[in-house]
Amino acid sequence: MTRKLHAPDAQQLSLFDAPVLVEQVSVEQVLAEQALAASDAAPDAQATSPVTALLHASPASPVSPAPAETPSVSIASVLRPAVFRHPNADREIRLQDHVVGYALKRARRRSIGFIVGAEGLSVNAPKWVGVGDIETALREKAAWILRKLGEQQERQQRLQAAKVDWRDGTSIPFLGETVIVVLDPRTTGAVLNTSAANALLKPQAQAQLDGVPQLTLHIGLPHTATAEQIRDAVQSWLQRQAKRVFEERCQHYTQQLGVRYTRLSLSSAQTRWGSATADGTIRLNWRLIHFAMSTIDYVVAHELAHLREMNHSPKFWDVVRSVVPDYEAARGTLKDKVLPVFD
Fold it and tell me: DSSP character for 205?
């Protein structure tokens, strides 16, 4: 079993947060396992692969009634029976009591590839591989497929819960803290409450009620403003803050790393947090402004480190570690945190 990898462009390296998961299994491996199982099985036994046998094995029936041993926890016992159906599903299979509708695509390739994304399971297989072999491979990867489908379903639920209700009193994350949006016609533009903002920039001056939102963003709009007007005003303010903060952090880390960038710009990419090109251009996703400064610092240092090592080799990670020793924690935050959904 091998994981599918994509080689990066030598002239541009990017930092991704990719929710789509890919696995592939060689057709030769599936056929070999089937042949091995068939040769070892009794004449009246059903041929099955070692992986499948392990997943579906059950203890023999006792001769006399006796207390049953406690079985190990399986993925099927954790997940309630559910239906996972891709919107373009053209085939259906039952995996450990769960119905999975998947989209099958025939392609010129040597392996069977599984892709679990927001829409569900997609399978890419060579034209000459039979459906039986495809479903054998699916059953052997049932635990992985169900786990990833469950994770994607949970992520979609979190995304739905993260959808912003654009109104007076709504909240948004800013530099790792919660900011309350206040519609204030007396305000010109957008103004962050300065006294509370000091607590954000100076943790030692934090308010006594820890965990209670202390920051308020006053937007110069009437209480009759539409959701779109509020969203656009808040987004414009966040982008201005992102440009200011990113420039400050870039200047800080260029001095530490001994590099020089030629241009800094904001991006709105869906799965890319940042990128660096050989000519010194740095692009950073403005949505990073939602994260705490430690996470922003990691992404900034990551991209600037590419100006010394245009790769992801051990030497590159040594460069990153030299200025952000605990960068692994920031990487985990980027992967796990769900950002507010603006639209």
Answer: G
83 pairs with which residues across the strands? 99
Cα 318 to Cα 299: distance, rounded to the nearest angstrom = 15
Taking the C-alpha atoms of residue 46 and residue 30, their distance in angstroms, rounded to an integer, is 16
Packing angle between helix 131-140 and helix 142-161, nearest 10 degrees?
70
Partners of residue 22 on adjacent β-strands: 115
Residue 337 falls in which region: left (phi positive, over 0), alpha (psi -120 to 50) or beta: beta
Q: Give the length of the chain.
A: 343
The pLDDT tens digits for 91-119 are 899 998 899 999 999 988 888 999 998 88
Q: Report the predicted TM-score, pTM, of the whole model to 2 decimal places.
A: 0.62
For CA atoms 298, 303, 309, 313, give the dihedral sign.
positive
Is 305 buried (19+), middle (13-18) or exposed (0-12) by CB count in 10 A? Answer: buried
pLDDT digits (tens, 9 = 90+) for 39-67: 554 444 344 332 233 223 333 334 344 44
- Phi, psi angles (nearest 5°) of residue 78: -80, -40
- List pLDDT tens digits, range 166-191: 999 999 999 999 999 999 999 999 99
